[in-house]
Inverse folding.
């Protein structure tokens, strides 16, 4: 899985998650959803296919995507067979909220993740989902927020939020816990709303 820029530059995927224009400054991600490949640019989410031309940050790329056979074993590529939606997310927060620790738990593994600056975004999304669930919202409706509203809460631009979403997906993919690491942050196709993909959320103080 890769993307070839028209000047010949090739960007390759990691754990079946392709970040463009690079893993250092991602503005878009491409990943498997069901039986197709999905492109998420922050502004839109849509299906893409092998050989398609996509433009990200002013550069055009030709996608090199393998065939997704319905019976193929995709979990082995990602490094785990657990699903994000069945995991537990444990967040520990300092009193001044300047330090956030994050642990992910599956049925068979517990992994405390190294500190990252974008954890406060994850904490904010987790709180939104917790509040909605406490108010009686169903699992399908809880936790969604518009990117502009999330950016305002965090005091950053929507572009910065988008970059951190892609970085978080890549970071979780590297942990090799899940078959669907991109779902750590979900995005609705129709509205662009975001939410944390883990419904079982536990927040405590450090």
């Amino acid at each position: 899985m890769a993307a070839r820029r028209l000047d010949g530059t090739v960007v390759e995927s990691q754990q079946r998650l392709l970040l463009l224009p690079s893993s250092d400054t991602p503005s878009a991600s491409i990943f498997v959803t069901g039986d197709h490949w999905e492109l998420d640019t922050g502004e839109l989410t849509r299906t893409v296919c092998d050989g398609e031309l996509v433009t990200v940050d002013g550069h055009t790329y030709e996608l090199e995507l393998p065939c997704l056979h319905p019976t193929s074993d995709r979990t082995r590529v990602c490094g785990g067979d657990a699903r994000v939606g069945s995991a537990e997310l444990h967040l520990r927060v300092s009193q001044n909220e300047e330090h956030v620790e994050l642990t992910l738990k599956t049925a068979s593994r517990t992994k405390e993740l190294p500190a990252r600056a974008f954890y406060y975004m994850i904490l904010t999304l987790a709180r939104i989902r917790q509040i909605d669930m406490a108010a009686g919202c169903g699992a399908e409706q809880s936790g969604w927020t518009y990117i502009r509203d999330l950016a305002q809460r965090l005091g950053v631009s929507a572009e910065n939020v988008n970059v951190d979403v892609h970085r978080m997906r890549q970071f979780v993919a590297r942990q090799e816990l899940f078959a669907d690491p991109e779902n750590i942050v979900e995005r609705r196709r129709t509205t662009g709303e975001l939410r944390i993909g883990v419904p079982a959320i536990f927040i405590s103080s450090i």
